Amino acid sequence: MPIIRRPDWALPESAATPESVWLDRRALLAGMGLGAAAAALPAGRAQAMGPTPPDWPAPLATNPAFADAGRPRTAEEVAATYNNFYEFGSHKQIYDAAQRLETAGWTVTVDGLVEETFEIGTDDLIAAMPVEERVYRLRCVEAWAAVIPWVGFPLSALVEKARPLSAAKYLRFETFQNPDVARGQRQFWYPWPYVEGVTIEEAANDLSFMVVGAYGRVLRNQFGAPIRLALPWKYGFKSIKSITRITFTDERPVSFWEELQSAEYGFWANVNPDVDHPRWSQATERMLGTDERLPTMLFNGYGEQVAHLYDGLEAREGDRVWR
Fold first, then answer.
1. What CATH number should be reported for the domain holding residue 208?
2. Confidence (pTM)
3. What is the secondary structure of 114-166 as a DSSP string?
4. 202-249 pLDDT, tens per residue?
């Protein structure tokens, strides 16, 4: 008899939250300070999610190792109309405002502890990289989740191209800053530009993915066009959007949310159901486009691939893995 081994992120139907629990999700979210996030998406969102980008211009293969996220894919019209992108506003319906961002001629600077600093256009970078589709789970720190078919290439391929020096321990990512276009950046109390960081070991992990498209299309602006990061085992705020600079450094970067409120958001930000946010539980998550609440999984279900990166972390740094 053949043995069928389910991926470690797959959930049985029996793991779904009982109806009696999720029917009162609005009250639950309100108690977590997420009442606005529970609001219904706007009617006619398929027509309202902004211009339809072109299909991916070349034949696109789905990596078989990442073809099944263990849950149904989130509909494109849902994912494209429910986005965090604080450069364009603190609400979820920023898809219209994000269209102001001009991505033609976009370049990324790679500098710091590398053999040679360089600047490269995203079109040239994409042409030099092994582009493929991967279906990843996305878990927001606000306790909602989605499943997205991303198009992109392994971050490790970019690291190899950068030829970092042996002293490089971290990658620091930075996004654009243009308050004339991104009016959220006029809010002076935020530490613009948006910054995020990972260790070089995390960057080398096969799951770390530089995203340039989604749903078989060129990346929509509200997803973080023209190039963003996807780290599926971490809370979504680690997956920085619209990247303009990648710096290899020997100092641990201080990320946007960590600088703003270190008691709530830290450097590691690994998905962990046993460590609550100070203002809400992380034990369950709401799937976008549904009323379904499911149990949160450690490392968002990708522990087999990444747990070894954090062996002994608490003992070394006195730091909770998620923080």
1. 3.90.420.10
2. 0.86
3. BSS-EEEEHHHHHHTS--EEEEEEEE-TTSEEEEEEEEEEEHHHHHHHH-B-T
4. 999 999 999 999 999 999 999 999 999 999 999 999 999 999 999 999
